[in-house]
Known about the structure:
3 domains, 15 strands, three-stranded antiparallel β-sheet
Amino acid sequence: MGDGELLFLVLSLIYLSDCLVWIGRRTVLFASPWCSYWRTLFANPYAGNASGGLWLLNPLPPLGRAFFGHWYPLSMSPTGVCDLRLPVVGSLGRPCQSGHTLLYEQIRTVGHDGKYLLLNGRKFTKCESHDQSELLVETIKRVIPESIEKRGKIIQDFVNAQFLKIEASVRLEQVQRLVSKIRWTASAFFVFLYVMVPILVNTYGLMRFVIPVAAIMFLAASIIALQYSQAFKTLFPLRNSDRISGIVKMVLCPPTAIRAGDLLTLEAMSRFHPVLIGTLLLGGEVTGFLRTVIRDLQYPLRQDHTDVQCLSIVSWFAAMERQAISDFLRNELSTSYESLLTSPVWDGISTAYCPRCSCQFTVSAGECPDCPGVSLLRM
């Protein structure tokens, strides 16, 4: 292997490692690999663990687009908070959750450490994004001193705020406008690094171009880092430490600067509910995604917790989320919640079906083998 081939291999491995994205068990990735149609991706069952899975984003910077949609990791009610949620969207089963419950009267301090929600100075649960942990801290602080009646209204407002379509549309347009310039700069850098440099090195040798290539790489990464910094400050004004760490990473390892657009977009919409994000991005394909989310919420997988307070909080929060989704579907899509729970098209021989995954069975009763705790319904 010559110097040019070795250099190309090293740069490619560095770059491809940065194209990998981790999808948690309470996350959906909205991806448009070729800027044509959007699709949804959940945690990869073949490349992951109990916490989530890996997917490879489109390595060509101007073509792929991606946004995360997150579900909150806990449940809230007017009485307390619980580290457990009923819905588990995706195919990997229920994530490990402690079911730890705290009444508001037991909570003395509320804070966050990155993605971790801290209650009474201890890690209570890990959120999927910084926005989630910050919003939970703000909400719980508002809830604690209020009466039972006012607490319910605050939590209801917190859930409904995830379905503000106008705000989400404005945010999406802002993100796409800020990222478009970065993507084209990154694309030019990509062509230089992975097309021009290997050709020049193979033609004239590595030693002649080491210093010029290094200088251009540093300059290009610095330009992208500056664009990234300005966009990041606009989108995430309170996360200075994350902005600085991203800049340092790009300058010290220039190939990672090509993915600056994804670093901005992935978490840019995380404050909004996945149902709302899917409505904005998926277009006519959103119905299938909505069915998956609603059936999982209506027919959750079995969970092993038996604490009465925990289950009461979880059920209350799930009912609140169902109501918010139902109102959103009725007001924004002129669709009813119940219309998405209809039975699948009969295959001609089955007598029952699973209301969660829509698989059909010739037995007339029992549980779905793929959805523990979900009873079969007759066709």
